């Protein structure tokens, strides 16, 4: 299949793509046409169906998989496919994994490892909180496993939030084993919960865009709100009785401070050692992943890749074998 | 009465002060003594009772008003009163207002004006939320009226939070009358609620210091949590049914963004016009109050007052009549 | 009429536009042609007259209103109209207000309100200064009413300077009524004069661009210079005798410091309360106007509008009714 | 003579000092006493005359030179001389140069060199402006030669403004000889005038402190005002007829921009090459002088001198011979 | 023994301290005296021997251990011991570890672990470089094991450089096991070498202060120079033949960039993934250690410890058990 | 000849250009073609030879001078020449100076002046170091004279490094004559050596791009390494015996600190007066040159040139004659 990122001006297209969006419109001359956004795991491209009701054009909707026949032209500086034929594809004709970006790691095995971390937390209140979230809340679990960790920066694929959460927790687990003043239970719980607000900050795939709540409040404030819900209940549901006040403050603080700096949206700077450790673990995994994705994408390029804003540096692949 | 800020090395003292703190200790030679923190509305001073069980020393505790007889000495660069006699004073011998800083404005009239603003909010959800807080929640109302608006910066006196909230709301009311795109109900509600988290961020007088929750989370995150409680209930209590989701996000956003900049602890920058207006109103009242308190304190000084960090400038009183 | 902002590649054009600029040039092949800049209140567009001396092309000059017939093509990534016919229009055929952006408020009523503020200033020196400027100096008054408040940021339309000055003065008037330490006369005078330098910083419409003096010195330094002229006279004219030195310094300081921060071009930070209040009033009106213009322009868009540099935030319209 | 900077707790004092300030006051017990500020070129010290009307205490006033007999004590952490006897000294008993800091260079020779630079400016308008200032304005010349270039930073001694102005002009002269695009007349004139506002920003010795105008406007805005006065006259006096407008803007711009950065109080950044060159020349001389004064003051110290804020670095003397 | 940090005004002293410095001087009255700096692992204190040649005062020099008898007074705001008797102590009377701060971990076991990391590096060039440094260069090994990792910030004790280097290497080892794109050999080598320049940046104990080279160049530049020496030889000695050029650049780059930001003295930002990982590992261990030392020092304090510059936050101990 | 910067869409081309790069490739249809990068001193342009083996296409390689016949088209927003004929030109048909940017000054005369500075250094160690570099090291001299001083910022032409080094040295020479505390020998040596690392940071023309070493380490670290080589020898060569340690540190420090600020890549801030002077001299010449190149390039433009990032300002040519 020809991936969207490889389509160039002049290319003929005859492949199955996912319909991300379909809007019916009218030309200046009053003729109806359809404005499509086609998607695969490598990107998106605009397409126009100028004769929507002609024989070669099947009925289809957003989220359908459709075989598109057409030519790629350049219009106002952007590529656009003029669609001559559009055939709705049946399941089996395509691999869903080709159409939405997914984590390279197996989600079940990752979640299993995450649950092992949950079980390793001895503090009864923290353990109960983690179980309420990661074992009992099916709706949350579904979103958490399906969500990316970001719209674009890093881990922006299905399973990305799970993969990132797990990686951060592993680093925290290592640090807890090396620095005896760290309280492992608090640190592991904070690591597991640090980005839970992202299930409400980002909409589900194929959108994967900032929600209203994400734009207005951000995943840090939302995450703290979710912890409040778990501990105190909400809309009449029960919470976790007798959850110690200091512990609630410490856990929320770790979430509040996990970006480490005001300018990255943390309203408080790390005040306890676990918050500080979590900030480094989060940042380390993010940067390691950015490097990994960048170098994966650049393929066989061996030279300098130019200034990369997310790394604030001109970077290159390491060449020593 | 001799105010604490006027006590100098060598002064004899014979006045009634409030006991902020009393700690019993032992000298290196094993002799018991009492370490006191005396307080009035102008400041605090350390005092030592070297003969705690002698006849001239009454029994008393923190928060008592006590007539202190002693001499002021300088020890390790700080003033300290050596107490010879200490007599517990009776109500009527002292004016409580001399011992804790209070707003120069009448709290009842201020609260009346605040309630008039509450009543002026037409949106039924916002009105209900405001009533639940400012009319029905006696515990909150008591704390809100008694609290300062800050530990030291400005409005750091009893009634300060009420005075500041009211002043910010007035400016917002004016702006709503001048800029038609502003939604008055949302803006007035945001103004009234913008600092409610301070009742949990700061401990009650005479302490008036950051609480654990204040240090760990700050009044912005706490304020959002209080709005969640009001709307959704908590620990089994009811909230406000059918509160519109968008409105909840917008109101919380105004609180989240009211400091205007990441570096001042707002995890989001103002995204709607009301959040922007609230930020300016809050900042304007803060700076006007800082100037007012500063010039009040400097009394009859007419020259330049030197660099003031809170105003980031070398300032002076205006001289034009 | 078809507004310039709505013209797209391929559109046929047959409407009256203002000629902002007309330059005669020669093609590589030695053929003469005219290079035009067409303007209406919504923007500008390039146009080429390839046969300048042909029958269908009237004689016309910059600032004329001309009916243009032609086609819109894209050249080097920008739109350009190839003009086939150009007919000079007569007065009455067009509405001047369609061709230059103007304030939505009536200039006479705004100026009336401004003069009422002038009359409300009791200090005889400040009042005399304001009268000399806003009542007696016809040349200044003409420029002041016709000028925008900025090239692009906000209030960039005819009457913008008047509208902004009035709005800032209103806020200052409100603040003077609420904070008793503010000297109303000084504050109102400063508000009325804070941007007078803009009549020299920006050229008149249809240019509305930075002048030499604007680029070299900026409206703050120019504004202080204008105050010096008014008080001390210049080039042999009289000024205002016995104007108090301290008052001159305070007034100039308010102008000097009204941007509030060094990085915004204020060589001094606010040192008196009136300078501080003016800075907030100026900033508040600027931001309220930016929001207003932005939301007006976005029309019926209901989603997030993306990061807006002037507001340093991703913004959206408020949705609560 | 014992310099003030060398006086230590416990020292007996019997030397002539200049009286910077003399304030009569009353002790808590109602006894009159005199509060003095003694000064020499190395610093200031507080002194108290507890028996002002006793036989050993002569009559004297601020700016008198007085022989002081007394002991040095420490009070509230600061040194203070208890004066037993005070004898007004006659001219001839002391060297004025010991009491006010002065430039190590001869003022007449420096001024001569400065005038040679004035004469080297060929542009008739600039030359006329320089002559009006540096040759004809006796009041200005007196202040200019007597003024320091700063309260504390560098060149804070009598003649400092002249010395700094000359040094900056020399560097500019050199740069004009090396970079042919620099306009020498404009650059030399800008260099000579860049700090003229300091004669109004700083009060005369022995005060040498910021004036009202200095605090409110600063020497940049004042300097531009002085240029306006010279070119356009003021209060009815004549200026320089036909001074080219562009040249006026360029010259003022060089003054406006000579601090180079907004954060250093320049409301505009250098826009022409001469403004850029002037900024570097000014900065270079300032830093060379700071190093020179620092190393002069540290005397024979050979190690690292610690972090110096004005140089933003930990510095040391160069050791290579 | 009474530790120096516990000595207070008025305390009598009779313990053995190390002499850090001894300077013979003369009082104003011409009397000789000795000015001492006493030291133990908790700090330093000044001491004066007013009768250096009296019977009770033994002969001793800097770095000797001496039993001091005297009283502690406060002079000019600092503590000072007036020494009545001073007896040179013999080995065996004191524990050297009481006088210089040392790592709480066993140096031999730490070095053993470090050597295991050396052996784990498979790349022959990197392995040879590490062996040349950590196995063959006895002078370097002695300094490396004895050095602190900083003058004051963290790990400022004997063995601190070894402890920090090992901790950073462990984190890097963990990261190399988790992120497959990391080249373990390069990362481990960089971790082991990242701070080797500190053996020349800091002088040996008891000084532990910045050397000339440290102040002028810093440990980053010095570290790169040491790598050059190892690879290319110096002053006629041999290096490591055929060391690959790219590998030399990558290794040096990791050292150059390990502070991560220009403002922390790295002239380049991390350009390869290993440099990025090293930066995080270095920073994480530094912050974990700062927290550990801070909380160790604060002992049983349970409240908020105030703003700590090194952590840029108000911090507290974690309370959850 | 038609310079590359003047070529526009639609232009026919028939001139000699240098081949910077030649890559043989294959179209999607399997047809071979050549992808060229043509270069002259004004820029680069892409060219395609669609029929590489046709009669009109000579054999040629990178760095050849070739007469190109073809048409200029626009493809994907960039210009591209479709080459119909390509004839390899013979020496004499073209002026090499038209194809690579060169300094406007004579390299031999510049180098002569540089050597005079070398000879003026009296300190035997510094003199010996300079001779070893600028007189004896033929390989270095060749690179130094041929190198630019930057890839793009300023002096980015052959001879640029020599021209810049000389200009900086001249300013330093002037400063040494004016500020007596400056050590001339150290300052002149530092000036001559401050950018020597650029011969390894940048590749030779026609590339003139950052090398691996330049990207990984930068010319500051490389320059210090080169000084180490000169003093201590390397790879078995001799150095300069008995070079004083302090002098080595001071010289290296001047190189290390010559960018003046951490954010510009200096790992240390100027700690001695010579380092400070060098920083200003370097910066002054850079900015003077940027202005000169900018104004040269803008030719006869008289207005404002817009915001220029390298000068951080909107700039214009000076107009006073």
Arithmetic mean of pLDDT of chain A: 93
Radius of gyration of chain A in whole Å, from Cα? 23 Å
What percent of residues of chain A adopt helix (DSSP H or I)?
25-40%
Number of contiguous helices of chain A: 10
Listing every helix as H and every strand as E from the N terminus to the C terminus, the arrangement of chain A reads EEEEEHHHHHHHHHHEE
Structural class of chain A: alpha+beta
User: How would you classify the quaternary structure?
Assistant: homohexamer
Give the end-to-end Cα distance of chain A, rounded to a whole number of Å.
Answer: 34 Å
The tally of beta strands of chain A, per DSSP, is 7
- Largest protein-protein interface: A-E, 46 and 46 residues
Low-pLDDT segments of chain A: none
* Envelope shape of chain A: globular
Strand portion of chain A: 15-25%
The neighbouring-strand order within the major sheet of chain A is: 1-2-3-5-4
Largest sheet of chain A: 5 strands, mixed, barrel
Topology, element by element:
Six copies of one chain form a homohexamer.
Chain A: E1 12-26, E2 32-40, E3 43-49, E4 65-75, E5 78-88, H1 107-120, H2 124-136, H3 138-146, H4 160-178, H5 184-193, H6 198-201, H7 212-216, H8 218-232, H9 245-256, H10 273-298, E6 304-308, E7 313-316
Parallel strand pairs in A: 3-5
Antiparallel strand pairs in A: 1-2, 1-4, 2-3, 4-5, 6-7
